Amino acid sequence: MKKNYRKGAVGALMDEYERAVEELKSLLNTIPLEEYSEIKDLDTIDPDCKSVQTIMNHVVRAGYGYCNYIRKQFGDPFTERKEFYDVETPQSACTHLDEMLVYTEETLQNKYDITFDDILKNIIKTNWGQHYDFDQLMEHAIVHILRHRRQIEKFMVKA
């Protein structure tokens, strides 16, 4: 099967983001419905990390948030993200991940030719106080998915 790679540094980030999402979706498709919403971490105080379902709402919500940071930085129109997404089942979570990927692709499609200098000079301040350049924010978005995929894998080992 021939893989189509997107153009440039921004394209590479989008390719890796898509790969991370596909790996997460593959994992979600192995989780029985009855375990998906079950509280897996009784000790956490983070409401976003109690079950696979709460993690998926957090991951989808964060994905839209990263896009909106980029859209605002470049003066592009954006849609406010929701507080809660319909991720009641692994399948609905996969659907929302796909929709989030489309939004990300739309966010980045006119930025594949951006110069590295333009990437570095676009500093984005997040609501958690971190400052990222455009490249760092996308790298954070990729690793965010990877970290939560790992967290879900650990949940399922304990099941």
CATH domain class: Mainly Alpha
Low-confidence stretches: none
Compute the average pLDDT. Answer: 95
Number of H/I helices: 6
How many β-strands, per DSSP? 2
Rg is 16 Å
N/C terminus separation: 35 Å
Descriptive report:
By secondary structure, this protein is mainly alpha-helical. The protein has one domain (8-158): Up-down Bundle (Four Helix Bundle (Hemerythrin (Met), subunit A)). It contains six helices and two strands, in the order αααααββα. The chain has helices at 8-28, 33-36, 52-73, 90-108, 116-121, 134-158; strands spanning 123-125, 131-133. A hairpin with a 5-residue loop joins strand 1 (123-125) and strand 2 (131-133). The model has no long low-confidence stretch (mean pLDDT 95).
How are the secondary structure elements laid out?
Layout: H1 8-28, H2 33-36, H3 52-73, H4 90-108, H5 116-121, E1 123-125, E2 131-133, H6 134-158
Antiparallel strand pairs: 1-2
Helix pairs in contact: 1-4, 1-6, 3-4, 3-6
